[in-house]
Design goal:
The chain is of the alpha+beta class and 342 residues long. The protein has 8 helices and 20 strands. A hairpin with a 2-residue loop joins strand 13 and strand 14. The structure holds fe (ii) ion. Fe (ii) ion (FE2) binds at residues 263, 300, 316, 318.
């Protein structure tokens, strides 16, 4: 598709939700893979809303990465070490990140300086279909209240998952798809709640069943994978071909930190759907449907620096699961893939 009035209007809606006001300054961060229609439309929307825009086109990334997706890959980017670019973003009010900066360091520095950041990686049609609303924010914040006071979580499924974790040590991640306050980061589109569990606290079993999605593979599990978890990390990966694939992919990083249990939570987007991923080529989408669909349970592995921990491993898997039940402090919040609380 080309840049259209509909896309321009969607951008204006997003920037309005981000509370962009006239005279504020905006940096549009552009990388090698940024969608040109987003670059053009974001630029026009910034101008139409009366703000001061600047497009920052960065050079090549410092290392070649395996095909996949930036939101599931934690490593240096074209921004790493580019101090003038970093300074420009620290001094603006809003960064529109169309590249996908490393979330463990530069991003924290920019947010600490008071700028807000909205990341957009989905192609225009997904972006427009899942465009956030004020309702998404209310729903996510209600779930965020549950997560903020959570001490324990237990997730179960009819396929045999039964895992418990403790909370308290690390942050809650409230993603509702727009960045409307100084120092806030968000990813558009998305709507889910998550939190990083306490170090060493995850215990039990996660069984990935057919239909669950593994990111960055961007594919559906076909054969069950049994993950044995103790002292906060995956200790065994058993099953058929899918298990072998996952095992060998993770082993490639040669990094024990990649096996740690990372952020856990559930999807809250009414329009996102787990089947959407099957409709796109892998390079076309960043899988935000999969990360956000209503009632999903998100299991993940690897880094926790973004939540306040010290793990920076690039081995990061987001694994949205179907039909799980999630219980927080003895109260059911998701039953068989249906959200029942918050
Ligand atoms: Fe993640």
């Amino acid at each position: 598709m080309a840049a259209t009035v509909a896309l321009l209007n969607a951008w204006k809606q997003l920037l309005t939700l981000c509370k962009l006001s006239p005279q504020e300054s905006v940096v549009i961060l552009v990388g090698d893979e940024s969608h040109p229609d987003h670059v053009a439309s974001a630029k026009m929307a910034v101008t139409e809303l009366g703000a001061r825009g600047m497009t920052l086109q960065l050079g090549e990334a410092p290392q070649v990465r395996m095909a996949g997706e930036s939101t599931a890959y934690y490593a240096p980017t074209a921004l790493t070490g580019n101090l003038p670019a970093l300074e420009a973003m620290k001094r603006c009010n809003l960064v529109i990140d169309l590249m996908g900066m490393y979330r463990g360091s530069e991003q924290e520095e920019i947010l600490a300086a008071g700028a807000r950041i909205i990341l957009v990686k989905e192609p225009p049609e997904v972006f427009m279909r899942l465009l956030p609303t004020e309702e998404d924010r209310k729903r996510v914040l209600a779930a965020g209240e549950i997560m903020a006071r959570a001490k324990t979580m237990r997730v179960t499924s009819r396929h045999g998952s039964d895992m418990t974790v403790r909370f308290g040590q690390y942050a809650v991640l409230e993603q509702y798809g727009f960045a409307d306050a100084p120092g806030r980061w968000d990813h558009c589109p998305s709507a889910f709640i998550a939190r990083w569990p306490d170090e060493l606290s995850a215990e039990g079993t996660i069984v990935l069943a057919p239909g669950d999605t593994i990111l960055p593979f961007k594919s559906y599990v076909q054969t069950p994978i049994r993950l044995t978890i103790s002292q906060g990390a995956i200790r065994k990966i058993e099953g058929g071909l899918d298990a072998r694939y996952l095992r060998d992919y993770m082993a490639m990083f040669n990094d024990p930190e990649g096996y740690a249990v990372s952020h856990l939570g559930w999807g809250l987007h009414r329009k996102a759907h787990w089947t959407a991923l099957g409709m796109y080529d892998k390079r076309q989408t960043n899988a935000m449907d999969a990360r956000s669909f209503w009632g999903s349970f998100m299991f993940s592995t690897g880094p926790n620096a973004e939540g306040g921990g010290s793990r920076h491993t690039p081995c990061h898997l987001d694994i949205p699961m179907l039909d799980c039940s999630v219980n927080v402090d003895g109260v059911d919040v998701v039953i068989d893939g249906e959200v029942v609380a918050g």
